[in-house]
């Protein structure tokens, strides 16, 4: 019995990792509706609850579309480079390391970032015209920034694929559009979305629900470092990217100072 469980984890878990991204795009919606179904029935007319669920659906549809477009409309067909690197680094031990470092952490993050939804659905406080509107605007702005950044990245990758197919050299660095002002504008958009969703929890007197957004941001620091290390690993792009690092904000889009130009 234990041997069967071991084999299932060792050989089945890599397949689960392939599906963690599409799973991530829908899990918060399921959690949000769970809280809605188990909320106090007398508070179901609360506008804040309906707005949060509506925003959650917009976020989910946006991220799902971005994932499917990136993967050429196939689910789990391509292995994430981070997991491939992990397997190469840790060899035969990679499956259990990734189980805790990726799978368990991902689920802790999903629960954490969904805490504002619990707070909202446990509250009977009416809509706050100022601060709930601010939270809503922040959520929409975060979704919009991430959508634009992902589209610009997708167009950049597609154009490079076409250049290679035509026998031309690819462009080594995306530094136009939002990527001119931030090295990771898509990450910034996601963080703005989750922190803005947390503001709804603050508005009902439960700031502790921001813990999930903080945990998510800390994890994104690690993801950002991995991504930039990969960019620097290619010799033909290393010097160009180092200059890009020097001149460009990491997350928050920011204008370059005059002396940097």
TrEMBL record:
The chain crosses the membrane at residues 94-118, 130-153. PANTHER family: 3-OXO-5-ALPHA-STEROID 4-DEHYDROGENASE, 3-OXO-5-ALPHA-STEROID 4-DEHYDROGENASE (DUF1295). It comes from Coccomyxa subellipsoidea (strain C-169) (Green microalga). The keyword Transmembrane helix applies. GO terms for cellular component: membrane. InterPro entries: UstE-like. Gene3D superfamilies: 1.20.120.1630. This is DUF1295-domain-containing protein. Keywords: Membrane, Transmembrane, Transmembrane helix.
């Amino acid at each position: 019995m234990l041997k069967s469980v071991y084999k299932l984890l060792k050989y089945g878990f890599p397949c689960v990792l392939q599906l963690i991204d599409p799973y991530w795009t829908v899990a918060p919606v399921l959690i949000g509706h769970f809280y809605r179904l188990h909320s106090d029935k007398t508070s179901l007319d609360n506008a804040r609850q309906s707005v949060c669920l509506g925003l959650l659906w917009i976020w989910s549809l946006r991220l799902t579309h971005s994932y499917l477009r990136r993967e050429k409309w196939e689910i789990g067909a391509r292995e994430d480079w981070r997991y491939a690197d992990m397997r190469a680094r840790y060899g035969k031990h990679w499956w259990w390391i990734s189980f805790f470092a990726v799978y368990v952490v991902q689920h802790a993050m999903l629960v954490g970032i969904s805490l504002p939804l619990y707070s909202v659905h446990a509250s009977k406080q009416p809509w706050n015209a100022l601060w709930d509107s601010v939270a809503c605007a922040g959520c929409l702005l975060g979704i919009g920034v991430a959508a634009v950044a992902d589209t610009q990245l997708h167009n950049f990758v597609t154009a490079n694929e076409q250049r290679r197919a035509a026998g031309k050299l690819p462009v080594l660095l995306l530094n136009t559009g939002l990527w001119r002002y931030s090295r990771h504008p898509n990450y910034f958009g996601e963080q703005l979305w989750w922190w803005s969703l947390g503001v709804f929890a603050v508005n009902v007197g439960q700031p502790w629900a921001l813990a999930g957004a903080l945990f998510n941001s800390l994890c994104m620091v690690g993801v950002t470092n991995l991504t930039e290390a990969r960019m620097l690993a290619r010799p033909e792009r290393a010097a160009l990217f180092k200059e890009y690092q020097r001149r460009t904000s990491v997350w928050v889009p920011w204008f370059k100072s005059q002396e940097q130009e």
